[in-house]
Amino acid sequence: MNYHVRKILFLMRLTTVILLGTMLHLSAATFGQKLNYVNKNVSLEQLFKEIKKQTNYNVVWYEGKLNTARTINANFSNATLDQVMDKALSGLPLTYTIRQNNIVIKEKTPSLLDKVISHFKNTTLFGKVTDEKGNPLPGATIRIKDTKTAVLSNKDGNFSIESKEASGALFISFLGYKPAEISFSPTNPGPFTITLIEDESILNEVQINAGYYTVSDRERTGSISKVTAETIGKQPVSNPLQALQGRVPGLQITQQTGVPGGGFTVQIRGQNSIANGNDPLYIVDGVTYPSTRISSSSVVGLLGTAGANSLSFINPYDIESIEVLKDADATAIYGSRGANGVILITTKKGRSELLKVDAGITQGFSQVGHFVDLLNTEQYIQMRKEAFKNDQLTPSTTDYDVNGTWYQTKYTDWQKALIGRNAALTNASLSISKATDKNSYLIGGNYYKEKTVFPNNDFGLRRTSIHSTLNLGTSTDRLNATFTTNFAHTRMNMPRSDLTNLILLSPNAPNPFDQYNKLNWENNTLYINPMATLLETNESNTDNLIGNFTINYKLFTNLVLKTSLGYTSIKRDELAKIPLSSFPPAFEPLPSDRESYFSNNYNNTWLVEPQITYTNKFGPGDFNALVGLSFQENKTQLSTIKASGYSTDELMNNIASASTIIPFQSYFSQYRYTAVFARLNYNLFDKYFVNLTARRDGSSRFGNGKQFANFGAIGSAWIFSEENFIKEHLHFLSFGKLRASYGITGNDQIPDYGYLQLWNSSSGTYQGISTIAPTTNRLGNPDFSWETNKKMETALQLGFFKDKITGEISYYNNRSSNQLVGIPLALSTGNSSIQANLPATVENSGWEFDLNFKIINTQNWKWTTSVNLTIPKNKLISYPGLEKSFNAINYIIGQPLSIREIYNVRGVDSQTGLYSIEDKNQNGALDNSDRYLNKFIGQYYYGGLQNSIHFKQFHLDFLFSFTKQNGNNYMRSISYSPGVWFPNSPLTNQPTAVLERWQRTGDQSSVQKFSTSINSYIQFLNANGNGGLSIVDASFIRLKNLSFSYNLPRTWLNSLKISEAEITLQGQNIFTITNYIGLDPESQSLTNLPPLRTFTMGINMTF
Amino acid sequence: MKLYTLAFILFFILFQFSCKKFLEIPPPKDSLTHEVIFQNDALATAAITGIYSRMALSGFGSGTSTSVSSICGLSSDELISYNIGLTEFYMNQINPNNTNLASSLYGMPYQYIYSANSVLEGLTMSKDVTPPVKEQLQGEALFIRAFTYFYLVNLYGQVPLHLTTDYRKNQSAIRNSTKEIYQQILADLKTSEALLNDDYITIERIRPNVSTVRALLARTYLYLKDWENAEKYASLVIGKTGIYHLVNLDDVFLKNSQEAIWQLMPTANTNTNEGNLFILTSTPVNVSLNSTFSLTGFESNDNRRTEWIKSFTNNTGTYYYPYKYKIRSSTNVTEYTMVLRLAEQYLIRAEARANLDKLDGALADLASIRLRAGLQPLNNTIQKDQLLIAIQKERFTELFTEWGHRWLDLKRTGTANNTLGPIKQNWQSTDEYYPIPQAEINGNPNITQNPGY
Question: b/e string for A620-659 if b means 16 or more Cβ within 10 A?
Answer without folding.
Answer: ebbbbbbbbbbbbbbbbbbbbbbbbbbeebeebeeeeebe
